[in-house]
């Protein structure tokens, strides 16, 4: 159990960073979103309406990422030499030759579908937690995740055909 802010940060910072990175596609933006997420969590005064701490933090990160993308920075070019102090998905992805293609695919998904898929697959949140975090119905959550998975399957098939 997390008992203070330092432990909260140590326990969830990597998850928040990874989630923010996959949402925005930029290491610097993901670091900014991660920092801002914990600042907002620390200074929040209202009632928390999400069942888990992780869900609460991811909701803040999602809102910050959506706000940033609405400011005109939806797509970004990615450098293959990204480095960060946090071990994030880019460390693993750098070893994958299809990394930039995969990032372009993720960025092509509607932001809310991308967030729902990442919360389910990467952060292992339940459909109910995702629905609450995104502010959509349970059935809409299931549909969005299903559609994103279908698009991902089609993308993988296309990549396999290209590499053959």
Can you describe what's shown?
The protein is mainly α and 164 residues long. It is 70% helix and 0% strand. It is built from 8 helices and no strands. The protein has helices at 5-24, 27-43, 53-70, 89-93, 99-108, 111-121, 127-134, 138-163. α3 crosses α7. The longest helix has 26 residues, at 138-163. The termini are far apart. 31% of the residues are buried.
Compressed to H and E, one letter per element, the order equals: HHHHHHHH
Q: What is the strand content? A: under 5%
| CATH fold-type name | Butyryl-CoA Dehydrogenase, subunit A, domain 3
Q: Which descriptor suits the 3D outline? A: globular
Q: Decide which structural class fits the backbone.
A: mainly alpha
Instruction: Supply the number of structural domains.
Output: 1
Helix content: over 70%
Strands, total number: 0
- Unreliable stretches: 82-86
| Biggest β-sheet strands, sense, barrel | none
How would you name the CATH homologous superfamily?
A: PhyR, sigma-like (SL) domain
């Amino acid at each position: 159990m997390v008992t203070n802010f330092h432990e909260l940060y140590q326990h969830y910072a990597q998850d928040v960073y990874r989630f923010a990175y996959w949402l925005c596609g930029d290491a610097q933006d993901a670091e900014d979103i991660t920092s801002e997420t914990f600042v907002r969590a620390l200074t929040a005064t209202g009632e928390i309406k999400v069942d888990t701490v992780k869900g609460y933090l991811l909701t803040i990160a999602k809102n910050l990422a959506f706000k940033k993308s609405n400011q005109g920075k939806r797509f970004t070019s990615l450098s293959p030499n990204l480095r960060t102090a946090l071990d994030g998905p880019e460390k693993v992805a750098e070893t994958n030759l299809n990394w930039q293609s995969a990032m372009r695919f993720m960025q092509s998904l509607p932001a809310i579908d991308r967030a729902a898929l990442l919360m389910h697959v990467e952060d292992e949140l339940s459909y109910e937690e995702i629905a609450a975090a995104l502010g959509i119905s349970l059935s809409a959550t299931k549909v969005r995740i299903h559609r994103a998975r279908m698009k991902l399957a089609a993308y993988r098939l296309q990549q396999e055909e290209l590499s053959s």
